Amino acid sequence: MARTILHSAATRGHANHGWLDSYHSFSFANYHNPARMNFGALRVLNDDAVSGGMGFGRHPHQNMEIISIPLSGDLEHQDSMGNKTVIRQNDVQVMSAGTGVAHSEKNHNAKETVKFLQIWVIPNKQNVAPRYGQQTFSPADRHNKLLQVMSPNPDDAGVWLHQDAWFHLGTLDKGFETDYQFKKAGNGVYAFVLAGDVTINGQALHRRDGFGVWEADRLTIKADSNAELLLMEVPMLG
What we know:
mainly beta, 2 domains, 7-stranded mixed beta sheet, Jelly Rolls, 7-stranded antiparallel beta sheet
Protein backbone atom coordinates (compact mmCIF):
# COMPACT_ATOMS: atom_id res chain seq x y z
CA MET A 1 0.00 0.00 0.00
CA ALA A 2 1.46 3.33 -1.08
CA ARG A 3 2.21 5.90 1.59
CA THR A 4 1.47 9.55 0.92
CA ILE A 5 1.84 13.00 2.45
CA LEU A 6 0.01 16.16 1.40
CA HIS A 7 1.52 19.61 1.85
CA SER A 8 -1.14 22.07 0.73
CA ALA A 9 0.11 25.43 -0.52
CA ALA A 10 -1.33 27.33 2.44
CA THR A 11 0.65 25.24 4.97
CA ARG A 12 4.07 26.26 3.67
CA GLY A 13 6.43 28.46 5.61
CA HIS A 14 6.51 32.07 4.41
CA ALA A 15 9.06 34.86 4.67
CA ASN A 16 8.63 38.26 3.06
CA HIS A 17 11.80 40.37 3.25
CA GLY A 18 10.51 43.05 0.89
CA TRP A 19 12.95 42.32 -1.92
CA LEU A 20 12.41 38.56 -1.44
CA ASP A 21 9.05 36.84 -1.05
CA SER A 22 9.67 33.16 -0.33
CA TYR A 23 7.47 30.15 0.44
CA HIS A 24 9.16 27.09 1.99
CA SER A 25 7.79 23.58 1.51
CA PHE A 26 10.38 22.33 4.02
CA SER A 27 12.16 23.86 7.01
CA PHE A 28 14.48 26.64 5.90
CA ALA A 29 16.10 29.65 7.57
CA ASN A 30 13.68 30.99 10.21
CA TYR A 31 10.94 28.52 9.27
CA HIS A 32 11.42 25.37 11.32
CA ASN A 33 8.87 22.56 11.39
CA PRO A 34 10.15 19.21 12.72
CA ALA A 35 7.51 17.43 10.62
CA ARG A 36 8.67 19.21 7.46
CA MET A 37 12.44 18.71 7.37
CA ASN A 38 12.66 16.90 4.02
CA PHE A 39 11.10 14.33 1.73
CA GLY A 40 13.81 11.70 1.45
CA ALA A 41 16.79 13.30 -0.29
CA LEU A 42 14.70 16.37 -1.18
CA ARG A 43 15.81 18.84 1.49
CA VAL A 44 14.67 22.28 0.26
CA LEU A 45 11.89 23.45 -2.05
CA ASN A 46 11.62 27.23 -2.00
CA ASP A 47 9.21 29.17 -4.20
CA ASP A 48 11.00 32.51 -4.51
CA ALA A 49 10.11 35.90 -6.01
CA VAL A 50 12.95 38.47 -6.14
CA SER A 51 12.31 42.14 -6.90
CA GLY A 52 13.98 43.93 -9.79
CA GLY A 53 17.72 44.46 -9.36
CA MET A 54 17.83 42.63 -6.04
CA GLY A 55 19.30 39.26 -5.10
CA PHE A 56 21.31 36.99 -2.86
CA GLY A 57 24.88 38.14 -2.21
CA ARG A 58 27.83 35.79 -2.50
CA HIS A 59 27.51 32.92 -0.02
CA PRO A 60 29.03 29.44 0.41
CA HIS A 61 27.65 25.91 0.09
CA GLN A 62 29.10 22.44 0.65
CA ASN A 63 27.94 18.90 -0.12
CA MET A 64 24.56 19.74 -1.60
CA GLU A 65 23.04 19.53 -5.08
CA ILE A 66 21.43 22.92 -5.71
CA ILE A 67 18.90 23.29 -8.51
CA SER A 68 17.30 26.47 -9.85
CA ILE A 69 14.24 26.42 -12.12
CA PRO A 70 13.09 29.90 -13.24
CA LEU A 71 9.33 30.24 -13.69
CA SER A 72 9.36 33.79 -15.05
CA GLY A 73 11.97 36.50 -15.51
CA ASP A 74 15.75 36.11 -15.62
CA LEU A 75 18.12 35.04 -12.83
CA GLU A 76 21.80 36.04 -12.96
CA HIS A 77 24.27 33.54 -11.47
CA GLN A 78 27.95 34.01 -10.59
CA ASP A 79 30.16 31.54 -8.72
CA SER A 80 33.68 30.83 -7.53
CA MET A 81 34.17 28.36 -10.41
CA GLY A 82 34.18 31.31 -12.80
CA ASN A 83 30.67 30.87 -14.16
CA LYS A 84 28.62 33.96 -14.96
CA THR A 85 25.32 33.09 -16.61
CA VAL A 86 21.70 34.14 -16.92
CA ILE A 87 19.09 31.47 -16.23
CA ARG A 88 15.74 32.02 -17.93
CA GLN A 89 12.31 30.43 -18.06
CA ASN A 90 12.61 26.95 -19.66
CA ASP A 91 16.14 26.57 -18.25
CA VAL A 92 17.17 24.15 -15.50
CA GLN A 93 20.41 24.76 -13.60
CA VAL A 94 22.24 22.44 -11.23
CA MET A 95 25.29 23.16 -9.09
CA SER A 96 27.11 20.42 -7.18
CA ALA A 97 28.60 22.23 -4.19
CA GLY A 98 30.80 19.30 -3.15
CA THR A 99 33.99 20.39 -1.42
CA GLY A 100 32.80 23.99 -1.42
CA VAL A 101 31.59 26.71 -3.75
CA ALA A 102 30.44 30.29 -3.32
CA HIS A 103 27.81 31.85 -5.54
CA SER A 104 25.49 34.81 -5.88
CA GLU A 105 22.07 35.04 -7.51
CA LYS A 106 20.32 38.25 -8.48
CA ASN A 107 17.47 39.45 -10.60
CA HIS A 108 18.99 40.21 -14.01
CA ASN A 109 16.31 42.83 -14.73
CA ALA A 110 15.91 46.16 -12.96
CA LYS A 111 12.11 46.32 -12.98
CA GLU A 112 10.66 42.86 -13.60
CA THR A 113 10.32 40.35 -10.75
CA VAL A 114 12.06 37.01 -11.22
CA LYS A 115 10.25 33.94 -9.90
CA PHE A 116 12.08 30.65 -9.50
CA LEU A 117 12.25 27.42 -7.56
CA GLN A 118 15.32 26.85 -5.41
CA ILE A 119 15.69 23.13 -4.72
CA TRP A 120 18.31 21.31 -2.65
CA VAL A 121 18.92 17.58 -2.95
CA ILE A 122 21.15 15.71 -0.50
CA PRO A 123 23.91 14.05 -2.59
CA ASN A 124 24.97 10.40 -2.53
CA LYS A 125 28.66 11.35 -2.69
CA GLN A 126 30.48 13.67 -0.32
CA ASN A 127 33.26 16.11 -1.17
CA VAL A 128 33.02 15.85 -4.96
CA ALA A 129 34.65 18.47 -7.15
CA PRO A 130 32.26 21.43 -7.52
CA ARG A 131 30.40 21.41 -10.85
CA TYR A 132 27.92 23.54 -12.80
CA GLY A 133 25.35 22.52 -15.39
CA GLN A 134 22.57 24.31 -17.26
CA GLN A 135 20.24 23.32 -20.08
CA THR A 136 17.32 24.86 -21.99
CA PHE A 137 14.21 22.80 -22.71
CA SER A 138 11.61 23.57 -25.36
CA PRO A 139 8.08 24.10 -23.95
CA ALA A 140 6.75 22.00 -26.85
CA ASP A 141 8.68 18.98 -25.56
CA ARG A 142 6.70 18.90 -22.32
CA HIS A 143 3.25 19.57 -23.78
CA ASN A 144 1.08 16.64 -22.64
CA LYS A 145 4.27 14.81 -21.71
CA LEU A 146 6.41 14.36 -18.61
CA LEU A 147 9.76 15.59 -19.89
CA GLN A 148 12.87 14.37 -18.06
CA VAL A 149 15.03 17.37 -17.18
CA MET A 150 17.37 15.82 -14.59
CA SER A 151 18.80 12.38 -13.82
CA PRO A 152 21.85 10.69 -12.23
CA ASN A 153 23.35 9.92 -15.65
CA PRO A 154 25.58 12.48 -17.43
CA ASP A 155 24.80 10.76 -20.74
CA ASP A 156 21.04 10.85 -20.22
CA ALA A 157 18.55 13.53 -21.24
CA GLY A 158 18.71 16.72 -19.19
CA VAL A 159 21.19 17.91 -16.59
CA TRP A 160 22.58 15.49 -14.00
CA LEU A 161 23.26 15.38 -10.29
CA HIS A 162 25.03 13.24 -7.68
CA GLN A 163 21.96 11.32 -6.54
CA ASP A 164 19.61 8.61 -7.83
CA ALA A 165 17.02 11.28 -8.58
CA TRP A 166 14.95 12.11 -11.64
CA PHE A 167 13.02 15.34 -12.29
CA HIS A 168 10.25 15.69 -14.88
CA LEU A 169 8.25 18.73 -16.03
CA GLY A 170 4.87 18.60 -17.76
CA THR A 171 2.49 21.17 -19.22
CA LEU A 172 -0.81 19.34 -19.41
CA ASP A 173 -4.10 20.15 -21.12
CA LYS A 174 -7.34 19.73 -19.20
CA GLY A 175 -8.43 16.10 -19.34
CA PHE A 176 -4.99 14.72 -20.19
CA GLU A 177 -4.13 11.51 -18.35
CA THR A 178 -0.82 9.69 -17.99
CA ASP A 179 1.14 7.37 -15.71
CA TYR A 180 4.57 7.87 -14.19
CA GLN A 181 6.66 4.77 -13.49
CA PHE A 182 9.19 5.11 -10.67
CA LYS A 183 12.74 4.80 -11.97
CA LYS A 184 14.23 3.04 -8.95
CA ALA A 185 12.77 0.74 -6.30
CA GLY A 186 12.64 2.37 -2.88
CA ASN A 187 12.42 5.90 -4.26
CA GLY A 188 9.57 8.30 -3.60
CA VAL A 189 8.11 11.02 -5.78
CA TYR A 190 7.29 14.53 -4.61
CA ALA A 191 4.87 16.21 -6.99
CA PHE A 192 4.65 20.02 -6.98
CA VAL A 193 1.83 21.70 -8.88
CA LEU A 194 3.16 24.82 -10.58
CA ALA A 195 -0.20 25.85 -12.04
CA GLY A 196 -3.73 24.54 -12.35
CA ASP A 197 -5.35 21.48 -10.84
CA VAL A 198 -4.37 17.82 -11.10
CA THR A 199 -5.36 14.53 -9.48
CA ILE A 200 -2.52 12.14 -8.58
CA ASN A 201 -3.35 8.66 -7.29
CA GLY A 202 -6.84 9.92 -6.45
CA GLN A 203 -5.65 13.00 -4.52
CA ALA A 204 -6.94 16.33 -5.85
CA LEU A 205 -4.17 18.93 -5.94
CA HIS A 206 -4.13 22.64 -6.69
CA ARG A 207 -1.60 25.36 -7.48
CA ARG A 208 1.57 25.09 -5.35
CA ASP A 209 0.37 22.00 -3.47
CA GLY A 210 3.01 19.36 -2.76
CA PHE A 211 2.22 15.65 -2.65
CA GLY A 212 4.69 12.92 -1.71
CA VAL A 213 4.18 9.26 -2.65
CA TRP A 214 6.42 6.37 -1.63
CA GLU A 215 6.33 2.61 -1.19
CA ALA A 216 4.77 2.59 -4.65
CA ASP A 217 5.97 2.01 -8.20
CA ARG A 218 3.73 4.31 -10.25
CA LEU A 219 1.58 7.41 -10.25
CA THR A 220 -1.66 7.97 -12.12
CA ILE A 221 -2.01 11.61 -13.17
CA LYS A 222 -4.99 13.50 -14.56
CA ALA A 223 -5.11 17.19 -15.39
CA ASP A 224 -8.37 18.63 -14.02
CA SER A 225 -7.59 21.94 -15.71
CA ASN A 226 -4.74 23.18 -17.87
CA ALA A 227 -1.85 22.53 -15.50
CA GLU A 228 1.92 22.57 -15.01
CA LEU A 229 3.59 19.91 -12.88
CA LEU A 230 7.04 19.15 -11.50
CA LEU A 231 7.82 15.60 -10.39
CA MET A 232 10.89 14.99 -8.23
CA GLU A 233 11.80 11.33 -7.71
CA VAL A 234 14.34 10.89 -4.92
CA PRO A 235 15.66 8.15 -2.60
CA MET A 236 13.82 8.02 0.71
CA LEU A 237 17.11 7.67 2.68
CA GLY A 238 15.91 4.90 4.95
